[in-house]
Every structure is written in C-alpha cells, then in structure tokens.
Queue: 2 jobs
Job 1
Amino acid sequence: MIIGGRKVSSSDGAVKKVFDPATLEVIDTVPAATEEDVKLAIQEAKEGQKEWGEMPLYERVKIIRRFNELFLENKEWFLEMGPKEIGKSQSDVNDEIGSATTIAEHFCNIAPAFKTETFPPGDTPGTEHNLMITVREPYGVCACILPYNFPIEMFMHKTVPALLMGNSVVIKPASDTCLVGIKMAELLVEAGVPPKAVNVVTGSGATIGDWLTTNPDVGVVTFTGSTAVGKKIGANCGEHLIPLVSELGGNDALVILDDADLDYAVEQTVYGRKMNSGQVCCSNKRILVQNSIKEAFTEKLIKALQALKVGNPFDDVSYGTLVSVKAAKDVEDSIHQVLEEGGKLLTGGKRFQETMVEPTLIDVDRENTVAKNLEIFGPVWSMIGFDTDEDAIDIANQSDYGLSGGVITKDMSRGIHIARRMDTGSVIVNGSGLYRTAGQAFGGNHDSGIGREGGAYSFANMTKVKTIVLSGCYK
Ligand code: NAP
Ligand code: MG
C-alpha cells in the first residue's frame, strides 16, 4: 500500500495474501487497509493535488513521459510478475505492456491539444458586450478502481489521464493483481509526481470500497469491473453526487455471416476469446453463426480449439490459468449450468490443475441464459445458430449488456447495417469485437456501464467545466 508516496502497512497490521494461480503459492502479502488508512490516503491525495494541479501542463506531460520510460526500463520485472500474479501467458503480458506504453504515450501526445471553448459575443440578446469562455479544472482527488484482468493497461487508462488533467489519485488495484499496480505507482513517484499525489490502497474491495466511494473529498471515481460492483459504486456515487465513469461487464456477440471466409472467421473467433484465458470484458463471448454455414464453421472451429495449448504461463502456451481457483470454479459452474439448460458440448468442458480450463465450445439455443445475460469469464465459446440477418440482430441485442461486438462478412454494407443496429458501445466490422486502441471511445451501454473512456473522452471525464464571462469587455 502506498500513502503519501511511501510504502506503508495498514494501521492494524492486517495483511492480504497474493497468490500465484499456477502454483497456488503465496507470492507476497499486502496490507489490508483500514478505514483510517483509506481516509489518510484521500487526505494525502487532497494535499498532493494542490502542488501537482498547479504545475504547468507541459511539466506534467514531461513527468508522465519519464514515468513511461521508467515503466519500459522495468519491463523485465513486469514480464516476470505479470504472469505470476494473474496466470496470464507471458506473451499476453508482453502484449499488455506494449499497449500500456502506447496508451501513456498517446495521452501525453494529445493532452496539450485538449481545448476549451470561446463563445461569440451576443449569443443571446443582452450579451453583446460579453466574452464567454470555458476552462477545464481537475476534480481534485480521483479514485481509480481497477479490475484484475488488465492490471497494467487499466492502470494507464485510469491514472494517466487523471494525473495529466491535474488530479491526484487514490488507486485501488484488484486484490488478485495488486503488485503490478503498487510497482507502477512507485514509478510515478520516481518520475517526479509529488509523492502525496500518488496513493494506492490495498485490501478487499467489498470492505474498503464504500470508504473510497462515499468520501466527500473524492472528486471523481473511475471504475472498471463487474456490473454487480459497478451498481454498488453507482449507488454510493449517486447518493453523494460524485461523478462516476463505469466500464462494466459484457456478453459480446460475434456475428458470422454466410459469405464470410471461414478460415478468417475461425481465426477471429479463437483470437477474440483465448486472450487472458477468456477473462476479457470485450472478448467475443457469444458466437452467432448463420445456420447455412454452421456445420462447416463448427468443424473448423473444433479443430482450432483442440489445437490450443493450455498450461504454465511461462511456457509457450495459447493461454495460462484463470486468476484464481474461485474464478476457475465459477467458469466450471457456468459450463454445467449451460449444459443443464440444454447446451451441447462440442469440445472441452473440464477444469484441470485447479485453475486451468480447457477450450470449451458449447452449442446453445437462443433461450439459454448464456445467449442472454450470463457472462462467462473464461475460455468458453458459446455458439448460437441463426437464419437471417434480422435474427442475428435480435439475438445480439437480447442481452442486457452492450459493450462491443463484431460482424464477419465480405459485404461491407451488410456488415454496417448490422453494426448500426447492434446496441453496443463499439462494433468491429470484419473482426472480433476484442478491439481497443488508446484513443478509441471505449465503453458500453446498459449493464456494460456509463460513459466512454479513451483519448479526449478520458480528459473530459477527469475535468469539470467552468464558464468564465468577461462581462462588458467588448465596447
Ligand atoms: P470486480 O470483482 O467488480 O472487481 C473490480 C474492482 O472493484 C476490484 O479492484 C475489486 O476489489 C473492487 N471492488 C470489489 N467490490 C467493491 C465495492 N463494493 N466497492 C468498490 N470496489 C469494489 O471485477 P473483476 O473480477 O476484477 O473484473 C471482471 C469484470 O470486469 C468482468 O465483468 C469484466 O467484463 C469487467 N471488465 C470490464 C472492462 C470494461 O472496460 N468494460 C474491462 C475489464 C473488465 P477486490 O479485487 O479487492 O475485490
Ligand atoms: Mg493472483
């Protein structure tokens, strides 16, 4: 835990263990923050923000660039700790490090171009002599609550825009993957962010979450995680009128039309789900296949899934473990539920070595829970047949989630027609919905959250608009 830029224990000395899901060994322990600790972190952040927020933007950019350099100088450390903490394959961690550094660089590049407005005098009668401008001000203290699945990338997406806009941060990393977050926070301080402006509180979110999301000194909350927790945080923020950005769960559809190149469709189907053992918010969790090609597609998909290598994250594997025994058991339970509801198991289906799950393909009908609102956070491909393009749109939209999606077709206008009707935050035509760039407006509809982040959207989330009127400045 980091309070005021220094590593500290919790005020009552309690700790929480961090496990390696491949060996089930304890890698480290972190403090389990008390209410007093969380209050202190917010207090320190409030003080640290004054110095940081007054620094010119170009100085803040320079410091964040330095942080990004330090991050890359420590790449080997992240390549070792990343797979150990989360069980993700080392090659996935390598990709995550690559995206993370791009994200930080992108935000540094565009921050100086984040503009405010001026209004023409006389925009309404009686204002002919006035100049109206807007300025953007930091909220103050930003609480950044991170999910476990992309602990490095999400650290960048949350903290970098918050800091560039002049906020200080209190970061709550996921308990399963907090060590990389602590390291990154240390690098922020090493790079020159005032120590008090960087705080990390560790401990169970269920315990410390309320202290973080009801404190009147927290100016804004940015959360990525499950819908259930997002609703709890939303209730707190609503009651205390704290602005909230929430990126939540998904049950994304990948629609494969009858004119698709089958090999490409299979490649995208596998790619969009195997990453991080299927623990990705915007992975293609529901595969919607036109019935006329379903048999041929299924044959190829089964072969591709059976060729995947699952094992120790440090070996040359397609994917590693789930993040914990509990996460793997949840996936196993969901597989059983889908089968009990009539799903037909086509390959895989088993959990093994406690935390690993075979690549699993299940053919389901559109009434199965997994075809609607059951988000399985693991390597399970649920396949649903459909007849017409309109059926595909209906099935895609029968979920309460609405994060991302994809359509595979050679006919761009057919793809765009479906894309425009999918009730989601993003749609990729001719690819898996597993797609996110640093500048993309990323986020979801309905149960997938409120708001968008990425590029200038993140800067807007991290600032409040003030109008200043220069009354009578024009003759
Ligand atoms: P989670 O269980 O909701 O946890 C997310 C974070 O919230 C963790 O830091 C957790 O701490 C904390 N937390 C738990 N209870 C809390 C509370 N009552 N108040 C405040 N914070 C609390 O989600 P996860 O298992 O880490 O991530 C998986 C979910 O995130 C999936 O549903 C996935 O789709 C979604 N996700 C969405 C996006 C997106 O951009 N839309 C990206 C990635 C993941 P502890 O770890 O200590 O419990
Ligand atoms: Mg772990």
Note: The two ends are 58 Å apart (CA to CA).
Job 2
Amino acid sequence: MDHLKKKIQDKTANITVLGLGYVGLPLAAIIAKQGFHVSGVDIKEESIKKINKGNSPVNEEGLEDLLGDVVADGRLKATTDGVEAVKSADIVFVVVQTPIADDKEPDLNAFKIAWKTVRSGLSKGKLLITESTIPPGTMKKVVLPILEETGLKAGEDFYLAYSPERAIPTRTLIEIRTNSRIVGGYNVASSELAFTMYSAITSGEIKKTDIETAEMVKVIENAYRDVNIAFANEIALLCEKKGIDAMEAITLANNHPRVDILSPGPGVGGHCIPKDPYFLIHSARESAMEIELISKAREINESMPYHILDIIKDSLSRTNKDTQKAKISILGVAYKGNTDDSRNSPSEPIVKTLMKEKIDVISHDPFVSKDFGGKFSNNLEEVVKDSDCIVVMADHDYYRNIDPIQLKSMVKRPCTIIDGRRILDQNAFSDEDIHYRALGKGKSI
Ligand code: SAJ
C-alpha cells in the first residue's frame, strides 16, 4: 500500500479511466493535467479518434482546451484496448453509464462489461475505483464476485473503492476539481489510497466512509433533488389553479432562512436524476420495503411534460386554432439549459405525443444536432416562422436573449408563447394577439 501511495503522491502512478463520457473524459483530462500519465478507454472508435486529435466528443465548458493540452503533451492517450490499459495501470477508474431499462429496473450491463475488462487485466497491488451511480449493495453483490474470480482478494491483493461523482453537467470541470467528495473503501487501506488519489485532483473536502454508505449517499443526494423539484412542481400546479405566480411564492418562501425550494420545470431530464430514485426503489424492494414519497415524486416529475401538453392544447383552443392544422414550435431539445445532452429530455414525450397525434411539431436547439425523430432545425427563424404556439423547454441562455420583436414578427397571430422555464420577460412577449403563458402562473387549464 505504501508503495502505491508514494506513486500517487509523486504522480508516477499510471492511471486508466474506463468510460470517456460526460464524467469519465473530464476526469481523465483533469488527472492528466495534474501530471499523471492517463490511458482513457472507450468502446466508441469515433470518440477515441477525436480524443487522440485533442478534440472532445463531449460538449462541456473548457473541456476541448484542456484535452488539447494533455493530449499534446502526451499525458492522455485514448484506446479501445481496455485489458491492456488495465494491465499497465496502477489505478483504474470505472466511469461508465448505468441507465435504467424501460421497466425502470437498473441496467448494469455496460458496468459489468467494464468490470470484466478490469478482471482480465487485474494483478496484485492495483487500486480500483468506480464513480458510476449504482444501486446500493452493487459493489459487494456484483463487482466483488467478478473480480475475485481471479483468485485475488479485495482489500489484500487489490484495493477497491467507490466515490460517487457529484459534478453537475455544464460545470463538470470546475466541480470535479472543487466539489467535496465521499470516498467509500472496501477496507481502511482502500479508503486511504482512494483518499490520497482524490487529494491529488480536488481541493474539495474528502470524507472517508465504507463502500455501502458511499453507494447510498449518491442515490439519496439525487433522490432528494428529485423530491425537491417535485415539490416545486406540485406547488406550481396548485398555484395555476389559484391564479398565483408559483415562482413569486417560492422565491418569497426561500427568503426563510431554512427554506430552499427548487424551481418548477417542464420535466426532469438528464442521465441521473430521473434514474437514481429507481435505484433506491430497487434497493428498497430487495429489503422488502416500498419507498412511497420518492416514488410519488418521480410520478409528479414524469407527468410535467404532459401538463405542458395540456397547456399547449388549451392555448390552441383559446386562440381558436385547429389543432390538426396548427404548427407547434419546441425550443429546447436538451434536458436543461446550456448543455447538448438530451438524455431523458422532457421535450421528448411532448414531441412524440404530438407526432403520434399527427400534429405539426418542429424542434429547435442551439446545441443539440437532432431531435427525437421529428422535424428539427438549428435555425430559429425556420422553427418559429408562422408558428401558432411556441414552447420554451430548455433554459438555454440563447433563449433568454431572444429578440422579442423579431420573434413576434415571425409567428402567426394569434400565437401563444408558453414559457416552461420562466426565462422570458412576460411584458415583452404580450401584445396584440401574442399570449404569454408560464408554467405555474395564471390561467388554470
Ligand atoms: N430541474 C428543475 N428544477 C430545478 C433544477 C433542475 O426542473 O430547480 C431539472 C433540470 O431542468 C433538468 C433536471 O431537473 O431537467 C436535472 O438537472 P439538474 O441540474 O438538477 O441536475 P443534473 O442531472 O444535471 O446533475 C445532478 C446533480 N445532482 C445534484 O445536484 C444532487 C449533480 O451534482 C450530479 O453529479 C448529477 O446529477 C449526476 O451525475 O448524478
């Protein structure tokens, strides 16, 4: 252990990162920037080629420049040969996606494949860490059996730790470098080595715990956020009925020193928040328990895109538009503002439902290059021209800065503008035959 600890401290430890996605690639680049030699591994040949040219397949603020630096000075090299990269590593990070299947059950296939690659390259003395979000209990139930098929013993022949990533997309580089972290070790030596490794790349406080607690911490962090957002959404639905502005009520309530309500939105997307509560639900059921509050919060958040659909249809009928002849413009395919990630985007159920009902819908996004199989354009004018109803679904700064006069000159009056993110100025978007509606405000359905 001391030998490996010293190699970390003098940055001569060879690092391998399995999985070069929204978290793995920034992590690999940051570790390389700190002076380590890093092998980045991914199954996507396309990504490997781009990365080895210093280009980023992931759209994250500052990542392209950082990648260019570390690839140019030979500190980061990408490969598809995971086994070789594990064999040559002192420390291996597994940072692969862990989605849920259509039945909301955990899909750990990619995660297991990654660990089988680690198994094939495993030898004594390595430190193995994963940052992937997993159902509590997975490290002991799934990962350990795979690794110990080699005959090597965790905690003695190799070290094993879990440290959930907490970086928020659009701030990933800053947050990997500065966020506090939890490090859960299989044993004390594993915790200590993982602590030493993360101390080399982050200025944030690092708390040590055991593996099971660390697994639980990650999913409860995101489940908490999901419940908070669901609370805000339910308040928004109530305020619409009451003719109260939910954002005003929430902002004033948050003036209380111990109240911190998040913002209502048209749905909860991304690759984590919509998924992690189901990991908790799955893990609870393994212990014969139903977690009702968290399940209900998921139900509320998953219903929000359909509430926006109700507002769209109500708006068309209030402006006497024939739904079958109307043009609906969806602004925002990404799951939230200023990212190109459209995984679990709230726009998806809206677009797919309108398409199924043969309603003319076209989507726009300044970052994403395609939508969910419908009509799409990166040209805003093409999307809003002659539109009967415009729906702001992502809080991109690009939409905050839209010129109201130009937009209103292009639509087909009467036109409704539905502000799903409360980012437009109502006064600028309400005049002769332009109707502004906002989630959580004013007219009820
Ligand atoms: N949203 C709202 N209202 C809000 C905040 C968010 O409707 O007040 C929506 C967003 O529009 C988006 C979704 O929720 O559709 C999730 O976005 P987010 O910004 O809340 O979170 P993520 O998924 O981008 O990142 C989260 C973060 N988790 C927490 O803040 C507890 C991040 O720290 C995690 O690292 C990340 O999940 C992850 O990878 O687990």
Note: The longest strand covers residues 14-18.
